[in-house]
Predict the 3D structure of the following.
Amino acid sequence: MKTLTILLLLIISGLLILSCQSLKIPTYKYYDNLSVDNLGLKKSNLSIDLHYFNPNNVSIVLDKSELDIYINDNLLGHSSQKFQQTLIKKAEFVIPLKFEIDMKNILKNSFAGLLNKEVNVRIKGKIRIGKGKIFTNFPINYTTKQSFSIF
């Protein structure tokens, strides 16, 4: 009986070790559906859909995100969201984000910066993903140039 218990524990331990793979960070693809939800004099709300690819061989869960958005290296706004969204293995997924924008920060970008044909957009922060009860924070740091025109 004691031998059977030890053998069973060894088999279960081996299966757990083989099933635990390190998670890979999702790969950024593109964004779309950028919109202003609420425009105010002090604060405004911005929505954007970020498209990512889950490179993992298992489905994982997106738990939360803490992200800042920068335009020309000036902080534009912050997003803090809880999700509990399942990310299917080896598939693309969408993170719908809502940013709160401090309108004073838009003025810091200056009219000269906003009149340029292109602006630098950077999204920086972390997302928390995992499987079961084990979650890990992954850094997000994506920079791109975006065509921009107010006229």
